[in-house]
Known about the structure:
alpha+beta, 3-stranded antiparallel β-sheet, 3 strands, 2 helices
Amino acid sequence: MSGDEGTINKSLYRLEYATSARSKCKGPKPCSGTPIAKGELRVGWVVNFRGISASDSWRHWGCTTAKFISNMKSELKSADELDGFDALKDEDKERFRKAWEEGKVADEDIPETARKIDQVSP
């Protein structure tokens, strides 16, 4: 968050570490609906309900798609402007900056729950 009192969000998007294990991933299938563990890096966005900012929806950092990053880039000039960015560990800041530049999350950041299981015939 910014240092200004009264500033709620810098943008509609936010990066943070999950404060509990109650959030479910709203990313693409097959991961959609799986829990986001407490302390895990997650990215969220504000969901408007009838024109009122209602709540945040979350996805695992690794479930952030190229389209999602593109949408963030259309709103923000740099990765550092993202709400919550300043509170991240240095290594997570670098992961996010790299994804911002490349337009996609690194393959090693994609959780197992988001990987399609290949059906192998016996």
